[in-house]
């Protein structure tokens, strides 16, 4: 803990009176030191290091804004260029460890302790640094959990954030990628912290005010626009027949069966396949308007055909997606947009929406064990989970019914008065039995446990706990874990869809057939799914260019996804 | 439970040519159920060379030949499977096409249709493959001289490269789609020999605007640009048959003159977009994004009208 | 390359009258399956040429499951495999059987 956060005897002034304004005084001192580098609130990019060295104090809790999409990269470069003799032992509290600089600062001694949520591309390096003891790890959180702690015990002293533009008063336009910014600023600005924003441009008037200027202390005009990763773009050209088969099973065996209207999709080709089958396969099953109408979802390009075919009522977004801005502007009935016409995303609200207002989460994972625990952490990659643990959990605070939720609750059974039984959120793992390089997705024991042991973690990094998972969909079939009544049944249900992995081949064949007779395991043939339909011609779009055509030319894919 | 295939009930003509297998292309291209295969997979006429390299073989060696009807006209057809060995020419693969073209002299079909999908000659049987290319070109020349139009259709995953590009050059008419690429040296070959500064094979936009269907159509190397559907290729193949030029000295001299003029006019261009600009395209950078309809309209607007090869 | 052969007895013949069918393509991670109706109605034989050695046990399991689920009596099934994952093999076999059942 930063020392100035502790109240009590230490706060007593010389006259014996309690000083209740030490944080505010400290903030004023930081601002005073920093002002010499600024013209009003505006700081040129060349002065970033001076600015940060003036503001930061050793041991500060710092949020360097970065999540799975947008990055305050100019400020990250500035921070890693600070003098470790002046700026050191920082405690980083941020959603994403994504840029090399996010870890460089630990090697340099600028930062020491870390609390975060997601580290996709840096997963390998972060694992090495954790083993090497270069990072003192607090915890790997979910987004919402980390945001929550911003307001309780991980409140930042300094927030380094990113926006599209600002005026000279600090009014900030975060643009379509608003994401974490309002939450970070709320926690910092209203608790005596300092907020520094990097923007692509200083303008006379911002298109809309996403963050009011009185919450922003300094505005840095960045040397180049902040980086955004096109994380949610999946090229339809790479969707396989196996993924199409699994998508058909999910649509027919889960979406249709439970009447799923409110949902969230995780990232991956499996969920992209589902999105691309809505206007074709699901349409022919007569499901339009009955499923997949209300979404907590980033603007997935692969959902364009479904939107254009009139499937989707509305979508609230965690963040935006590169290339989708024009399309979103032209579809305000579907997306949340501001007075300027562009998307307003908000990760904290969207995570809450996914948690409480969606009846289904479906996503992929790297490993599932015999009970159904799953994790994307392996012994040499600590990827973090972002939002999946929240999306993929059954919220006990939910109090509104829906047919879907109630049906799942009935299937889960239980004892006591049926009138007092709650519903269940559907949490579906969509996994191919073998991943890249024939690595099995089903294992006796998660690598995450090994990692926890090696790093001496109190809590193993599990993405979705077994008691939250309701269904597992593989190319071999659907296992409905809600209907399992014993641990043995559960294990055989999982083995029964684990294909030709060791776990799958270790099944009790007779028991699996009994589970199939009870509908706990359902094969494609049990669902009336024709194997000949598992063909790419069933996809509503087969290439990125098809998506562009579906969008009427409004979707502008990033260069790496274009062949034109 | 009753099984009703969705895919198979969808119109085959709407399927993507690029995505379809060679067999599916043939099935959709020809009149329903009219395709009859010569040397089908059940005869297991496979490569004698691939086992020496410990490589898997295909029952048809990646080349499917036979006869069928196109709007009731008898045609001979050959289709390459671009996913097997990149559609490359080997001994059996090449011999099947040579045999088909020679048979045309006796069967006198309305046309021979070659569905190209090839990276060139198979390295593992290069001598046989190179020989096959020469024999195929000779056989095409003889068939065309006998008045049989030989039409090439290009729109597969492997494009039409190497020896396939040479063979395509001897066809009477070429139909190409956006996904189709036509060239002799492929992007990787150019980069390997001349460096990434000369040609960056990973720059997909560069590859497509240099070798892709639109550029080939604008240059007159292909005679029709079509949507990526089996139906569009079928319609274009039908239109190409009566449009095939006579294979005589006048045609060859005209073609020679056209190619010389083209080299004079565009030889100093460093990018396809420059060529398009000189052809009178107002906004060359917009060309790759155009739909087929808009692209055809553009061709009609060009001051000199579209070029036609051969 | 590895050659594998399996022979199973089935409880019934695969429905349909089609003499042969072919599905799939030999490519990396893919395979072609040739099905021919030329055996006694309670026999199904497999001849497999696979690009990847050492997976005989998995092939045996995939083939046995296919026979149990589809009862493909009367067929010789010949496979050229470019190194497909088991799920792709299962899917291709199921597709091949369906093609043989179609009118």
From TrEMBL, chain B:
Residue ranges occupied by any CoA carboxyltransferase N-terminal domain in the UniProt entry: 1-249
EC number annotated for this UniProt entry: 4.1.1.87
Enzyme class: lyase
Lineage: Bacteria, Pseudomonadati, Pseudomonadota, Alphaproteobacteria, Hyphomicrobiales
GO molecular function, one term: lyase activity
InterPro entries: AcCoA_carboxyl_beta, ClpP/crotonase-like_dom_sf, COA_CT_N, Malonate_beta
Protein name listed in UniProt: Malonate decarboxylase beta subunit
SUPFAM superfamilies in alphabetical order: ClpP/crotonase (SSF52096)
Domain of life: Bacteria
Protein keywords: Lyase, Transferase
From TrEMBL, chain C:
Entry keyword set: Cytoplasm, Phosphoprotein
Stored InterPro entries: Mal_deCO2ase/Cit_lyase_ACP, Malonate_deCO2ase_dsu
Location in or out of the cell: Cytoplasm
Residue ranges of coiled coil: none
Signal peptide residue numbers: none
Any single Pfam family the record assigns to this protein: ACP
Annotated protein name in UniProt: Malonate decarboxylase acyl carrier protein
Organism of provenance: Methylobacterium goesingense
């Amino acid at each position: 803990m930063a020392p100035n956060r502790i109240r009590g005897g230490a706060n007593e002034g010389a006259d014996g009176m309690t000083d209740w304004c030490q944080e505010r005084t400290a903030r004023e001192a930081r601002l005073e030191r920093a002002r010499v580098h600024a013209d009003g609130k505006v700081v040129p990019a060349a002065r970033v290091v001076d600015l940060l060295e003036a503001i930061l104090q050793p041991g500060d809790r710092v949020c360097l804004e970065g999540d799975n999409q947008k990055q305050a990269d100019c400020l990250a470069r500035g921070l890693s260029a600070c003098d470790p003799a002046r700026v050191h032992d920082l405690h980083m509290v941020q959603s994403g460890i994504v840029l090399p600089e996010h870890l460089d600062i630990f090697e340099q001694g600028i930062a020491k302790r870390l609390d975060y949520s997601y580290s996709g591309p840096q997963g390998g390096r972060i694992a090495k640094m954790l083993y090497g003891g270069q990072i003192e790890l607090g915890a790997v959180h979910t987004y919402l959990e980390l945001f929550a702690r911003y307001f309780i015990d991980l409140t930042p002293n300094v927030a380094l954030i990113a926006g599209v533009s600002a005026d000279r008063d600090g009014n900030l336009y975060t643009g379509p990628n608003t994401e974490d910014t309002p939450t970070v600023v709320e926690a910092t600005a209203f608790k005596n912290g300092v907020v520094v924003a990097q923007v692509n441009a200083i303008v006379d008037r911002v298109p809309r005010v996403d963050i009011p200027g009185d919450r922003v202390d300094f505005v840095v005009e960045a040397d180049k626009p902040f980086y955004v990763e096109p994380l949610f773009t999946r090229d339809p050209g790479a969707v396989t027949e196996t993924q199409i088969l699994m998508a058909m099973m999910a649509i027919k065996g889960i979406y249709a069966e439970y009447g799923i209207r409110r949902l969230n999709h995780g990232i991956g080709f499996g969920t992209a396949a589902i999105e691309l089958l809505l206007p074709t396969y699901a349409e022919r099953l007569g499901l339009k308007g009955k499923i997949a109408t209300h979404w907590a979802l980033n603007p997935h390009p692969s959902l364009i055909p479904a939107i254009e075919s009139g499937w989707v009522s509305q979508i609230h977004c965690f963040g935006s997606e590169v290339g989708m801005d024009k399309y979103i502007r032209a579809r305000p009935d579907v997306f949340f947009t501001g007075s300027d016409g562009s998307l307003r995303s908000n990760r904290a609200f969207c995570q809450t929406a996914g948690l409480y207002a969606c009846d289904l989460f479906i996503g992929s994972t790297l490993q599932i064990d015999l009970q159904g625990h799953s994790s994307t952490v392996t012994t040499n990659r600590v990827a973090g989970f972002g939002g999946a643990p929240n999306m993929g959990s059954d919220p006990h605070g939910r109090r509104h019914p829906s047919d879907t939720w109630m049906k799942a609750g009935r299937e889960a059974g239980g004892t006591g008065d049926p009138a007092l039984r709650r519903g269940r959120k559907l949490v579906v793992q969509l996994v191919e039995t073998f991943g890249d390089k024939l690595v099995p997705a089903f294992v006796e024991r998660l690598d995450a446990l090994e990692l926890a042991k090696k790093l001496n973690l109190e809590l193993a990094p599990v993405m979705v706990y077994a008691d939250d998972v309701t269904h597992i969909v593989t190319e071999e079939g659907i296992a409905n874990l809600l209907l399992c009544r014993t641990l043995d049944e559960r294990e055989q249900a999982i083995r029964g869809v684990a294909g030709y992995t060791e776990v799958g081949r270790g099944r009790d064949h007779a028991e699996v057939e009994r589970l199939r007779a009870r509908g706990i395991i359902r094969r494609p043939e049990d669902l009336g799914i024709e194997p000949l339909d598992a063909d790419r011609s069933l996809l509503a779009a087969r290439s990125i260019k098809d998506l562009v055509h579906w969008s009427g030319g409004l979707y502008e894919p990033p260069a790496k996804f274009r062949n034109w | 439970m009753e099984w009703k295939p969705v895919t198979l009930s969808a119109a085959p003509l709407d399927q993507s040519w690029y995505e379809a297998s060679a067999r599916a292309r043939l099935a959709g291209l020809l009149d329903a159920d009219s395709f009859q295969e010569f040397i089908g997979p059940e005869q297991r006429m496979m490569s004698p060379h691939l086992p020496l390299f410990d490589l898997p073989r295909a029952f048809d060696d990646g080349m499917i030949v036979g006869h069928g009807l196109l709007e009731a006209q008898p045609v001979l057809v050959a289709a390459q499977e671009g996913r097997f060995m990149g559609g490359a020419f080997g001994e059996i693969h090449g011999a099947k096409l040579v045999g088909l073209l020679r048979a045309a002299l006796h069967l006198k079909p309305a046309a021979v249709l070659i569905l190209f999908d090839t990276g060139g000659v198979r390295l593992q049987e290069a001598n046989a493959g190179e020989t096959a290319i020469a024999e195929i070109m000779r056989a095409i020349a003889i068939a065309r001289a006998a008045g049989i139009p030989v039409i090439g259709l290009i729109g597969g995953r492997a494009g039409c490269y190497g020896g396939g590009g040479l063979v395509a050059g001897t066809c009477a008419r070429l139909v190409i789609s956006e996904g189709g690429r036509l060239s002799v040296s492929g992007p990787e070959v150019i980069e390997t020999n001349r460096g990434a500064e000369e040609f960056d094979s990973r720059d997909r936009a560069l590859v497509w605007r240099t070798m892709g269907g639109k550029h080939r159509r604008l240059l007159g190397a292909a005679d029709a640009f079509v949507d990526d559907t089996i139906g569009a290729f079928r319609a274009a193949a039908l239109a190409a048959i009566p449009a095939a030029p006579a294979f005589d000295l006048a045609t060859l001299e005209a073609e020679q003159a056209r190619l010389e003029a083209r080299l004079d006019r565009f030889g100093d261009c460093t990018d396809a977009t420059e060529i398009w600009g000189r052809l009178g395209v107002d906004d060359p950078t917009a060309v790759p994004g155009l739909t087929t309809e808009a692209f055809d309209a553009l061709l009609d607007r060009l001051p000199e009208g579209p070029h036609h090869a051969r | 390359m590895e050659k594998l052969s399996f022979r199973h007895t089935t409880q019934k013949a695969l429905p349909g009258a089609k003499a042969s069918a072919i599905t799939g393509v030999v490519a990396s991670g893919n395979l072609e399956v040739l099905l021919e109706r030329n055996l006694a109605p309670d026999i199904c034989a497999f001849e497999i040429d696979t690009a990847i050695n050492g997976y005989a046990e998995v092939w045996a399991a995939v083939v046995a499951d296919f026979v149990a689920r589809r009862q493909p009596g009367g067929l010789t099934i010949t496979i050229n495999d470019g190194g497909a994952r088991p799920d792709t093999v299962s899917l291709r076999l199921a597709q091949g059987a369906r093609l043989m059942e179609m009118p």
